[in-house]
Design a protein that fits this description.
Layout: H1 2-11, E1 13-15, E2 19-21, H2 32-46, E3 53-57, H3 62-72, E4 76-79, E5 91-98, E6 103-110, E7 119-127, H4 131-143, E8 146-156, H5 161-167, E9 172-180, E10 187-188
Parallel strand pairs: 3-4, 3-7, 7-8, 8-9
Antiparallel strand pairs: 1-2, 5-6, 9-10
Helix pairs in contact: 2-3
Bound molecules: guanosine-5',3'-tetraphosphate (G4P).
Catalytic activity: XMP + diphosphate = xanthine + 5-phospho-alpha-D-ribose 1-diphosphate
EC number: 2.4.2.22
Subcellular location: Cytoplasm
Length: 195
Amino acid sequence: MRELLEKIAAEGEVAADGVLKVDRFLNHQVDPQLMKRIGEAFAVRFRDERPTKVLTLESSGISPALMAAYELGIPLVVARKRRPLTMTGDVYRTEVYSFTKQEANEIIVSRSLLGRGDRVLIIDDFLANGQAALGMVEIIEQAGADMVGIGIVIEKAFQDGGRLLRSRGFRVVSLARIASLDGGAIQFADEVMSR
Ligand code: G4P
């Protein structure tokens, strides 16, 4: 998605440890017009799969996931990392380890929101090691629902997540793929990647 690549090139910053900082349009301040077009891009790519729900993990996945759900005309389910007081009743639950943050996180979704017959599209902001996406896949499996694909705004292609997910046969669509952040320079891989 050319507009996204240009935005990353113009406003992205490389943190010293190989982390891409996109706080000006995605992770802290959010550009709604760009999110709208990201939502449209995911909708075009996944509409034929007839998804019934979009699933993301709080918090930075919410902006692109909401716009994708809006474009597809289906609900967005936001998986939580902590069980809110108001989330009573049975839940699906799994644990994922973040190599980037070096911490374990729970992923929790109410059983009342996902179930058999659902066709679930996963959307997230970043794909690094793939653990968050795998955790969401696990939740979908617990629910007995079908997973129709994974939409990623920015894939760090130099980390293992994309390979891991695609090797399991999942359809992964990344709107921007970063080949390298070495030396503080942002290098892009191909523009759009799908299985
Ligand atoms: P993984 O899910 O692909 O295995 O990634 P990992 O655990 O390594 O990353 C954990 C968190 O760090 C995720 O956010 C992910 O979006 C974010 N992340 C990973 N690499 C980068 C990067 O290069 N730049 C930025 N900006 N974020 C990155 P999270 O823990 O879910 O936090 P939140 O911000 O969504 O609340």
